[in-house]
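Two proteins, back to back. First:
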Amino acid sequence: MRRLLQLLSAMTRWERWILSLLVLLLLASGFGLVRLFYLRNSVLVPADGGTYIEGTVGELLPLNPWFIVRNDVNRDIVSLVFSGLLRYNPLSRKIEDDLATVKISSDAKVYTVQLKENLFWHDSTKAAPHPVTADDVLFTFKTIQDPQFPNALQRQNFRGVRIDKVDERTVRFTLEQPYSFFQSNLTLGLLPKASFEGIAIARLDQTVDFGFAPVGAGPYKIKSIVRTDLSTEVTLERFEERTLEPLYRLDGIVFRIFSDYSSLLSDLSHLDGVRLVPRNDDGQPIIGKHFEALQYTLPQYVALYFNLDRPALQDGKLRVGLQQGTNKQAIIDALHESVIVDTPLLELDTGDWHYQFNSDAAQGALLASRWNLPERVRLRRLLERDDANAAGLVHPAPVALFQEGG
């Protein structure tokens, strides 16, 4: 120690400054290395507890996975209240086990799913346990296959699929042909058979009582639904009987559904987050400065399908006219999105003229079909539009006008 003091006293002022700087750099480097080691060898996890309150604009619909197809708050609630045999993991971007494990045959035509142990519905109690069984799986999917089932898109997903019960926890799905995307169909939320006893299949989409007091097997269950003059508030609480991974740590989630953005913005101070906020003309979110805008993408798209069972849509010229008469870029611009998916089939050429917006070609295709407005009706529409424009009224021209006859 004495020698160190003698050495320091023998140094000039500048030498002591340089030595001090080197010591500080050494300490800072050491601290940085320790911090880097800590971050690389630590796993950060959220704390348990708390309630998240989210605001959104929309309308609360009956909560039933059979009939929720829109990408809105209703789908978010359904995804938390109901669980499927499989689930999509947004982190790994893979479909993984949820309520069940799945084994696929070597020819990719047989899917054998086995329910995990100790699965219960939300209305289960210690005195009256209500376990999830293979009968519930059969009910959920075989009901969809019934010709009277009121959701044609869901019914199409399981057309030609044989569903058999193997035992109380095992169900086998047998496909006519291999289908690589079939696993995604098994992410549909399961429904309890007991809740739909005595209800005609054709009327399942009218089960309002179940829709506003749903019973699922998901990580959260409905605690309350309260309607006020300002919003509809849906409160979820964590389902403690569920022990499956991943563990959900929030005690509760509250969805406040407003009729318009003005009402939402008036309650902004009571919200933790806002879903799908409006944007200004520059595409910037219209939201409070203390909120952070987060961009996210989902493995899905919004599509319009032609129902070829309808006689009108069996006319190929009409379909071409509708395709070419739809300005998809204008829709994208209005929504401030950036991607147009002309088709999910990679082998199709999206640069083909069939997919390009062309109002003149669309009108020609409609005229060539047997579905178009008579000449006198089209002329009257044009005159009405010209009169409106002359008066300074906003009167956008329709993309295409058509009706049966001609």
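And the second protein:
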Amino acid sequence: MRMLKLVILPLIISSMITGVAALDSEVSGRIGLRAVIYYFSTTIIAVILGIILVMTIKPGVSQTAEHIDRAGTTPNVTTVDTLLDLIRNMFPENLVQACFQQYKTKRKELDPPKVSTNATTIPPLATTLMAVVENITKEYKIVGTYSNGINVLGLIVFCVAFGLVIGKMGEKGRILLEFFDALNEATMRLVQIIMWFV
């Protein structure tokens, strides 16, 4: 399995660039439109199916509060952060880094500021209310970090754009196209050898 993981990166890069560069712009536009329509239709079907299954199965209803394992911590990440991370990962700032890391937003909880109070100036009810508000209100700082793993989305976006540019270059891009075609062929032969070995 480790040997197959070894050839994933050169296989993705070489096959995407070679495949996109070989297409003419009309065909690639139609194929791209069909791919987007297919992606959105399958996503909508999956969402509808998920809602129907949740309504019929009702997962988690049979569990009581004392049977739930609460040992782990849940990350404080919103849907907006996740969507923005997806867009950020589409356009990595460094291609070499995208080969082994991807961007991830985390929220770091800040310590609340300590308010110095005097018991003679603040009535007891106000002190209790301040303690409640202090316990409820939490402030977070958004921190961008990188986690281990190939940023496949960013590499695919770059390879598609690079393949389109090579395809439009005509005769000048032929050398690059032949290089990536040879790289793709060599990678496919490596995959065949690995499959026979495993």
